[in-house]
Design brief:
Strand content: 5-15%
Structural class: alpha/beta
Helix content: 40-55%
Number of helices: 11
CATH class: Alpha Beta
CATH topology: TIM Barrel
Order of helices and strands: EHEHEHEHHEHHEHHEHEH
Strand order of the largest sheet: 1-2-3-4-5-6-7-8
Amino acid sequence: MRSPLIAGNWKMYKTVGEAVELVEALLAGLGSTTDREVLVCPPYTALDRIGALVAGQPIALGAQDVFYEAEGAYTGAIAPRMLRDVGCTYVIVGHSERRQIFGDDDAQVNRKLHAALANELRPIMCVGESKPQRDAGQAEAIVIGQVHAGLANVTASQMQSVVIAYEPIWAIGTGDTATSADAQAMHAAIRRTLTELYDAETASGVRIQYGGSVKPENIDELMAQPDIDGALVGGASLKADSFLRIVQFR
């Protein structure tokens, strides 16, 4: 049985003080979450403080990106062991904003994923198509191609620590959401691909999140789909009440 993972990607929002205030509100309203996992991914500047705040609490800590080298002359980069040092257990790799704005290609995503695994960080690997690609009927081919490239040389054993997040680019921050049927169809295609790459048992154990304008109004329908195992939440994770409602999906 796959345990749902609800993750908040805060992107470039929240000062340290604002981050602490948000997490304190989340902890106060969370209650029991034994049947699901909750994760927050603040900006780098807040990771240390938030890591101390959630230690021993039912909220995990993740980072929004990582570099693939252990150390060195890489100005502005963050190494995997630095993330572990402040309490991170997860890291997002391959988010469409990293791909589009910062030029992360499939090869870099794969290197970051391997670096995360080598440092006992669980990577959340993002995949997704653009609106022109979907309109051209290429959505599944694009997403499956990203899955193949991102998971190159990843073993079945390592896949136990990997999460995949399907985030259609056209739905991120736009207010548009894939229908639950469309989201389920892509999640099922990803799981079929994992079966082909590995085996049915491995594929059935991998959590596949949906991301792209997830909000309190659509979380219940999305989570009712058999292959949707959680959500990677953007804007709705920046307010305690909306994120708590998403975490407490029915």
